[in-house]
Amino acid sequence: MLEHLFGSRTRVKLIALFLSQPEDPIFVREVTRRINTQINAVRRELANLTTFGLIMESRDIPDDGEKKRPGLKRKYYKLNAMFPLLPEVRSLMTKAQLLVEHKIDKELLSHDGVKYAALMGAFLGSSAPVDLFVVGSIDRTTLQRIVDKMQKAVGQEINYTVLSVKEYQYRKEMSDKFLYSIFDAPKNEVVNRLDTE
């Protein structure tokens, strides 16, 4: 959807990546790995976004314990927090993700085996253990097809977890740390049929 507006799927993936990690300077090869795109396309779109002013280029090595090697000059990229249209770009990306969520709602609701599903993390621009959490039974191929569509639409990798109802109940009774981290994280519940069990 957004690639039609922005002219490039790689550009959409890059914008989504930098909006999700506004404080992190990222090395070009790391960017390529995270959005799973050819390095030449990434370099071209990084140049476009730098010229546009949405991201900044730096040759400084971030203070992450990495030793400087003589003659090493890596380029790092980071979101430009002073970009005048940043609120509008962020709003546009969020609205596009909400449209994607609406389509996902319908797909997940159409599967009776799905008892609970919540969108988190990448969908809300917040930190969460996963981006999609599902409780119930759904064919793995079907779920992977839904996730592939989500990844294509939001321009980044979607991490997900699926628990059977039995496993969910067991983990809840055991006060499982992972499950409670999901309970505590911001989320948009798209399916909640657990109370009907």
UniProtKB/TrEMBL annotation:
This is Transcriptional regulator.
